[in-house]
Amino acid sequence: MEIKEVVKEKYGQAALRVQSGGSSCCGASAAFDGCDPITSNLYDASQTGALPEEAVLASLGCGNPTALAQLNAGETVLDLGSGGGIDVLLSARRVGSTGKAYGLDMTDEMLALARGNQRKAGVENAEFLKGEIEHIPLPDNSVDVVISNCVINLSADKDRVLREAFRVLKRGGRFAVSDVVTRGDVPGEVRQNMLLWVGCIAGALQDAEYITKLTAAGFEGIEIEPTRVYSIEDARTFLTGLGVDVDAMAEAVEGKFISAFIRATKPASCCAPGCRA
Predict the structure, then answer these.
(1) Residue 271 domain-assigned (yes or no)
(2) Which of 39, 152, 153, 217 is the residue whose CA sits 20 to 30 A from 226?
(3) What is the rounded distance in angstroms from the CA atom of residue 207 to the CA atom of residue 99?
(4) What sign results for the dihedral spanned by CA atoms 207, 159, 220, 38?
(5) Domain containing residue 84
(6) Which helix (H) or strand (E) holds 74?
(7) pLDDT tens string 104-148
(8) Where residue 173 sits, what CATH number does that domain have?
(9) DSSP label at 152?
(10) In this predicted model, what pLDDT tens digit does every residue of 238-250 receive, in sequence order?
(11) 167-176: burial string, b at 16+ Cβ within 10 Å, e else
(12) 0.85 exceeded by the pTM?
């Protein structure tokens, strides 16, 4: 089964669990019961208090891009891999009635959950689109800010995702995502395990490679700000129940996985392929 199909299946299951009163986590695998350490304590009560419980329970991210990104009234925001909709709903409130927040997701169950959360929250300036982050169904130069929360690392074609993000951004537009990245080499067993990929680990880029790919897509002003560094005990949480040697693997990944906030800008004037008139 291709990685994309595994991701779609697991996130669909996650949405259904939330709709039936359960909770979800990054990867939606029982091996990640409790969702720690990646998905815990990302939003404060001032943000979640006005949102439906299902939007909070369905949060699958590794950060809080809406808290770190600059969002201004009247702007258009696009969330890549919007899941249950928490970051779209928060963004919609930040940009106000004159702005717009789009959420893009490929999973029918997540889209249904997000649209239900939107109705419950009474947010009118949001729209959830079905599609893949490698093929964004929006015109060139149509959004001010692209956000994402622990989703780009799940793609098997990150170069395409970054080119698409660059394409839909207006000139001077901002790329502001939370993602898992690595420092140094990661064991091949981790890279090859699809359940770990769905768990936001195996697909993570090295920090330097992320910068290289953003630069190749045309971005400038690139910054990677660590927000969490995962320890050996965190690695045990990731790896327990996945049929791997936890003790041996945990030592190999100590301190190499981090959650980070990644910023970049589409030049205000440029000649790159994505700078279409």
Answers:
(1) no
(2) 217
(3) 32
(4) negative
(5) 3-265
(6) none
(7) 999 999 899 999 999 999 999 999 999 999 999 999 999 999 999
(8) 3.40.50.150
(9) G
(10) 677 667 777 777 7
(11) bbbbeebbbb
(12) no
